[in-house]
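Researcher: Re-running this chain for the archive, since the previous output was lost when a drive failed. Same request as before.
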Amino acid sequence: MLTFADYVVVVIYGISMLVLGFIAKSKVKTVEDYFAGGHGVPWWIAAISHHVAGYSAVVFVGFASQAYNAGFSIWSLFAIPTFCAMMIGAFVWAPRWARLKVFSAVEYLEERYNNVIRQVIAWGGLGVKFIDEGVKLYALSVVVNVCTGWPIGPVIVGVGLVTIIYVLIGGLWATMLTDMAQFIVQVGFTVLLVPFVLNAVGGWDAMWEQLPPESGRLFSSAIPAEMVFVYLIVATLSYNGGTWGLAQRFYSIGKPRDAQKAALLSALLFLVYPVVLFIPAWAGPILLRAGEIASPEHAYILVAAKVLKGVAPGLIGLLVISMFSATMSMISSDLNSLAAVITKDIYQRNFNPNAANLHLLRVGLVATTVLGFFMIASAMMVLSNPSMERAFQVTIQWFGALLGPVTIPLLFGMLSRRSSWRGALASVIAGFATFAILRSLTNQFAIYTGGELLVSFLVFFGEGYFFGPTEAEKEKISRFFHRLEETKL
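Model: Regenerated structure tokens:
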């Protein structure tokens, strides 16, 4: 499908990203720079980076397949909960992340609880993220496969290696700077594509008139309201720090007030942009005949290729870049944040507490490389297991469900003074156990994820209410909250 002009566009993009990566490298002198941007990232860069890192090819492949099948209700599932989650986070978590001045998302847990909880959340979070990273890499490889015809397996390996090298060059600064360029590419391509799609179907109103009546509803049988409610909870946990790479966007900012502004801008973008983003997939059932589409996962790509064919050279290459850039942003950010946890919370804390700054930076580079290869292996598992329901289903079922137990102590430890380390540990164990039981009994996402979240919340706050910390623990917790609250907005 790609022409010579498309390959030229892809090569130019690759060179531009490489240049930005080396510009970022000049900013990385210490481990703090590599993992936290030196706590000096401008709020508007962090906001756009947070928004871009919240997307990946999973949205273009997995969520777009649901837009193709279910219609407008995918916006209700994705955009509304994410917007609400970020509005909450702007006034609750974003300023607190900025006040903590940490190098990794789980670093503060020892100060709040103890090292046991720090290690449990670190190791548990690493396991959850490998599932998520593999799915994202698989989804991006589907995009490249549909556009080029190249086999998915080699594409997974190739894209994974490129991601590893990219992160090694400039750490968080590389991700932040290229996110700005990637945001321009994504939005520019989408704004260019949508008028051609709407023209092909006769306009916005005509599109919905040609689709089944249920396709235009806010909620549908495929995506009911209760699923949206559960996803709201998952999104609140994930986008406000449960996804460690997104927490980075806030603790890399120097001032709490700036972190709040970053969260508000990201919220607005998440509300508005998906309306434009999903239009090609909504138009898919009209523009694509049965023989033209092998899977709904290909809907966005095939519609874009069909309406842009012959318009101008290089546009299909721009399509590949727009999705590649989204996934590169999210994966590179996640690799950096995971490497931070391994370097600071596992290696330095447990094995070499007196390690020099340069030594820790080298450990971070090694951790990034090793994690990258694990990510590639995870994506190959998604590809090779025919029982998995591919990008959207895997992401929602596993990442969404397993996120809660390791995130509730992380986020609510900043808010609750009454819960002790025992409640935090019990909530993780109870959450995973509930998921295992309910998942074996039902395939309903709202039931097994909602039940798991409910149990984790009840155990975490119930322990604080009925038992709580000892007197010695209360003194430690009081010191933590004094430090957390002493920096004003």
